[in-house]
Sequence to fold (556 residues):
Amino acid sequence: GERAAKKLLNPTEITLHGQISQEELFTSRLLRKTLHHHNGFLYFNPVTPNPLTQCSHVKPGWVLHEDPKEIMQSVYECMERTCEKLSQLNIDISNIKAVGVANQRETTLVWDKETGEPLYNAIVWLDLRTQSTVERLITKTPGQNKNHLKTGLPISTYFSAVKLRWLLDNVDEVRQAVLSERAMFGTVDSWIIWCLTGGRNGGIHCTDVSNASRTMLFNIHTMDWDPELCRYFDVPMEILPKVRSSSEIYGWMVSSVNAVFFCCLGDQSAALVGQMCFTEGQAKNTYGTGCFLLRHTGTKPVMSDHGLLTTVAYKMGKDEPTCYALEGSVAIAGAVVRWLKDNMGIVQSSSEIETLAAAAGSSYGCYFVPAFSGLYAPYWEPSARGIICGLTQFTNRNHLAFAALEAVCFQTREILDAMNQDSGVHLTQLQVDGGMTSNRLLMQLQADILCMSVVRPTMSETTALGAAMAAGAAEGVKVWNLSPGHLPHITSEKYEPQINSDESEFRFARWKKAVQRAMNWETTEPCCNANGTRLSYLLVKLFQQLYEMFLMFPEP
Fold:
């Protein structure tokens, strides 16, 4: 597909290049119109206000997509609706010449390359089922220094390697496919590109450096899969995708859209690009299911001493330098609103939380730590669990709504403090994006708690924009110039702090006290299964307690 794809663009024709953005719950499409290589217009087409893919929580800590084929169905539906929209605008879809992909990172899939069938549901980045595996690996590797230096990551349930290890240990179909050399592993980008470039009929099995760097199998210095890391996790290298730069020819799409894949980026890297963060020291924070603050650190990886991740930001071409970032990852941000709506029924819609929180005006001493999947940066504490502190008879759902929004802001404050300590240079304002930034109260709370300006672009879906930019900047397309002087201007809205720093510090200190209450809550115990392991465990504990009580009584 690569050689054929090099017969590309007539620089005088109207061309379109688009981007498929596959997030945890939504797939969207962004198109950029380019005339004579000059800046044109953006068409942003969110497919539907309702989720296209569903996650299930079949057990505590488990987060599954129902079916990887459902992810692809959402992609196909997105493409179809985008083509319908272009037709309504009298634009020929044959003008779409370049396509990029941005995706949720770490989410793990294994499929059969001969049948094209997934061998298990996609295990989402938030999933905690591998906690016991992580504890065993941490015990096996005191300090984790060698692995951390290679990957920039701590051993955690967050990353793909332990999810893949779980699949190899627990799913017969995956083991058999590996033994018969039929298995392919990938994150969501690999699955989408493989399917859209032919699938079992010659589909391209690849990923980019930003996604590979989130697996714990990739060496961020050599920029390749690391044999020693693969041996450590006992993962066969034959099932791994080929690693490419973030902006180059991947291959032709096999679909009604006769276009070429020119870009692949993890969603947070795409947002960094979409926020025009191409210079060392620039940073952005994305508010989605989780919250992700990335700071560009240049062309050399910077290791954190304060609980942050060192990750590959992007590599804009085969011969271009690799750029790195420090990242603070928060597991639960927008997901706390979904929990209040779907699990607790406190709000009827995601937008209602702003109305309720505004009516309260304060949490009145109520602090919410949404550690549903443990705590990520800067703690990396998988045993933490969600907790609400400071409840009184006065507390109502409005106060809980306010506390939930504050929790997102407090978590961002912790990440920013760690990032400032690592870099030694304090940010003076925070660039933000993502779905939650449409909540104006949240943005004001964030400015108050950080005691700094918060800047939100009016087009908040910068993940989609970033991947479209990377596709347009690829060799053979070159309709985007990513040099600082040639970047497009995106209008923005600024929020300034409205409380004094003493009040901000007081509220932050109270929240940190609540965080300590949430720590070390969950311990790894045998799970219930058909053999009665859980029952046996409880009986043993009961007899231990009875024996201890017996010893307390004196002999007659």
